[in-house]
Every structure is written in structure tokens, then in C-alpha cells.
Design goal:
about 240 residues, alpha/beta, seven-stranded mixed β-sheet, 7 helices, about 35% helix, globular
């Protein structure tokens, strides 16, 4: 797929809803909306990433708790149909997509590779530079600086990354009207912040299986939501 051109005019941002929604509420939105929906989710719980790992844990899968939580999340989405699944090309995102699909009783669902949502994708210009800076500052302080200033070594600006991801979602053919896309915390935090839905830092982070929900209205406009497994305990996720 051709990536959006960062030199194109800015995309009009969706209308943001600042109150979080549950998986069940996203299912209701997806069922009722006349247009497309996209749910961009962080993967499930994984083991810790070694600080000196330049692949950012590329081969890490899910913990037992992460697998169980992803299955439960999928059960709460049952009824969304037709639905396509895509994941950044990392083991933990693909494993999460498959577990959510099983929870939705979509046992034979294909999970398409979506490099746009991964480390070599829309948000990254120089992964080696990002890893070097993370090693110098520490991952949490470095991520805080990116979200605070909107710029960081090796990443596109929050504004440019948000626009590129919106353009991708608007143009991509995922193969179904509804799409579940599995990605990583820093990109989801920057995307939600760029959309004006919510600001993040390492003390109030994007938890596992949290993400951004987009719904298209009849006139073609979009609305944006923060989707979380537990609406009563979502603001205390810490950087991990």
C-alpha cells in the first residue's frame, strides 16, 4: 500500500469525544453507524522489553494474562460484522489480533500485516535514532518529552503522524466496513493526543488493549473516541 504523502494538505480532524467508551459501546457505535469504523488498539500484556533491545521486543509474545484479556475483549465485541483484522508486523500485535478474533468467534479470521501501524510505519523516520535517544534518556522520560514537545528524534511530529494515520485509515481498504488494527502504545498515545481526545504521560499512559476508535458518519465526517476495557479504571495505567 502506498503511504500518505507528508507534504499533502492537513486533514480535518475528527470530532473528539473526551469521555472514554467501553468495548460494548464501540460495538453499539459500529452497529449503528452508516459508515466505516476503525478501532486502533494497543496489544495485550507482554513480558518486559530489554533496554538494549534495538528491535523493541519484536519477538515477544503475550503473557498468559495478556492472552486471556485479549480473548475477553473479543467476546465483548461479538456482533461487529463484517470485521477485518490487521496488526503491525510484531509477534505481540499479531497474537493479540488472533486472540481478539477468537473471542469474537472469528476463529479463521486472517490477520493482515499493517506495517503502517508499526515501528517502520507512518510515525517513524529513523528507528535507530529513536532507539539511541531512548537508551540515553530512558523510555519513559523520552516518551514524555515527545508528547510534551510534539517532536522527537526519529519520529514524525505528533501533528504530522496524526494526519498521516488519519489519511491512511480514510484511504485503506481493510476488506471490511469495520477494522480492528493492533499497534503500539507510543503511536496510540500520540494519535489520541493529536486528535485532541486525551493527553498522556508516563504516569497516565495507554494501557494494554486501550486505543482510539474512529466512526464515520453518513456525511463522511468522523468522530474519535478513547476506547478502554474498564471505564472506571483507565486513567492509572503507567508506562510499561
Amino acid at each position: 500500500m502506498t503511504m500518505p504523502n507528508p507534504a499533502t494538505p492537513p486533514t480535518i480532524l475528527p470530532r473528539p469525544a473526551r469521555d472514554p467508551i467501553s468495548p460494548e459501546e464501540f460495538r453499539e457505535i459500529a452497529t449503528a453507524t452508516p459508515g466505516r469504523t476503525v478501532l486502533l488498539l494497543r496489544h495485550g500484556q507482554r513480558p518486559s522489553i530489554a533496554p538494549d533491545d534495538p528491535t523493541f521486543g519484536e519477538h515477544l509474545g503475550l503473557t498468559e494474562a495478556g492472552e486471556k484479556a485479549a480473548l475477553d475483549f473479543g467476546r465483548r465485541l461479538r456482533g461487529i460484522d463484517p470485521c477485518a483484522f490487521a496488526a503491525s508486523p510484531m509477534r505481540r500485535t499479531r497474537d493479540t489480533a488472533r486472540a481478539v478474533a477468537r473471542g469474537m468467534e472469528r476463529h479463521d479470521a486472517a490477520v493482515r500485516d499493517a506495517p503502517e501501524a508499526g515501528l517502520g510505519g507512518l510515525w517513524v523516520t529513523d528507528l535507530a535514532a529513536t532507539h539511541r535517544q531512548y537508551a540515553i534518556e530512558g523510555a519513559a522520560p523520552a516518551s514524555d518529552r515527545y508528547l510534551r514537545n510534539g517532536r522527537f528524534e526519529g519520529y514524525r511530529s505528533v501533528a504530522d503522524g496524526t494526519r498521516l494515520m488519519l489519511d491512511w485509515f480514510a484511504a485503506a481498504d481493510f476488506g471490511a466496513r469495520h477494522a480492528l488494527v493492533f499497534s503500539h502504545d507510543i503511536f496510540i498515545a500520540a494519535f489520541l493526543q493529536g486528535l485532541g481526545v486525551r493527553r498522556f504521560d508516563s504516569a497516565n499512559w495507554v494501557g494494554y488493549l486501550q486505543g482510539a476508535a474512529l466512526a464515520q458518519d453518513a456525511d463522511g465526517s468522523w468522530s474519535a473516541f478513547y476506547c478502554v476495557p474498564d471505564k472506571h479504571d483507565f486513567a492509572n495505567a503507567f508506562f510499561q
